[in-house]
Design a protein that fits this description.
This protein has 431 residues and is an alpha/beta fold. Helices cover 34% and strands 18% of the residues. Strands 4, 5, 6, 7, 8, 9, 10, 11 and 12 form a 9-stranded mixed β-sheet that branches. α2 crosses α3. The relative contact order is 0.08. The chain is built from 11 helices and 17 strands. The mean pLDDT is 88.
Length: 431
Amino acid sequence: MSTTQLRAIKSIAKDEVRKAEASQALRLQEKGLSNVAIAEKMGLAGESSVRALLDPALQERRDITTTTANMLKEQVAKHKYLDVGKGTEQYIGISETKLKTAIEALKEEGYRVDSIKIPQAGTNEMTRYKILSAPGTTYSEVVKNKEKITFYGKPQMYSNDGGRTFFGLRAPTNVSSKKIEIAYAEDGGTLKDGVIELRPGAKDLDLGKARYAQVRIAVDGTHYLKGMAVYANDLPDGVDIRFNTNKSKKEAPSKLSVMKEMKSDPDNPFGAVIKPGGQRGALNIISEEGDWYNWSGKLSSQMLSKQPPSLAKKQLDITYDIKRNEFDDIMQLTNPTVRKKLLESFADDADASAVHLKAIGLPRTKSHVILPFPKMKENEVYAPQFNDGEKVVLIRHPHGGIFEIPELTGNNKNRDARSILGRATDAMGIN
């Protein structure tokens, strides 16, 4: 048994003991006994221990494991094979510890967790997944049914209160196509292709505290818009949304023809992962202002392959040195259990690094959303995280070659960009 399993089982056992003690204390309280008398009756240290048992907040925390486990049970009953591997806790809105404890509780009831390898789409590389299945399921059955595994993001169950309650993806709120204007290629739509402009204050179209977001918007119950949403103050009367497209009116004569058809899957009609709590009115948010800031600043092999070999070698050498130092630090530890645990984690990370071949980023490398502002000069960038006049290199992922990597000059005085993005943490504006 691993230390993680042991801690989870001890946590479950403690919860069960405290639940039983709390139930007994409650029964004695209902009989009229004081907290002091209850403590004496139950052999507890004092009346403060009784108060702790009866504290609703503590009871609620103990119930989180049960609530999470029940949610997972329902999903296994519905989908049979459920991915519960690394990152699942982020999709469902609880801590990794709470998820592991709930899974261990299910394993005590006979549920299985199998580790299997599945090939990545488009490559021969294998990725390891942890699959939860019902009692009686065999490992070979899980392996034979890889195509039936349900990965998190579908279904989308999430908690916005730390695991006390869970919600699924509700049926999307639809916008009428009568409220939508299309900016076709000949109308300048190509200059902002994919940008969804929203009327400030329009019903069900509130971005909240964000100034920009990657969204899906259901239209007429059959289609949806996808793109980056921002506010616009120049929409004509009667129009709440303007969608910019590089298609011409001849190519797409109707409004719906520039949109995507909704999928028949009720759990995920957009074919995309909506962030926890991301359904707000008619907006179904994938990511919003601030989310990209936390993305990795590492350089992908696709980017490095287009660069001079000397740059790739330099960044990979730095990456290797960092990993080597991390390994040396672990090997200096004297506790064999801790060292073994850290080495296992190091090995898993090293395997992933070898497969994806990502190098440490160049100084101040960060992920940003790029939004178009056609009135800007072609050699300028609105980049509030950088200084006016500073050279900024933009690298799109993926890209065809260095000819697609512009070096632009920072200009944070542009009125159009400043009115939309302000002091954005993870967005830039270009021509």
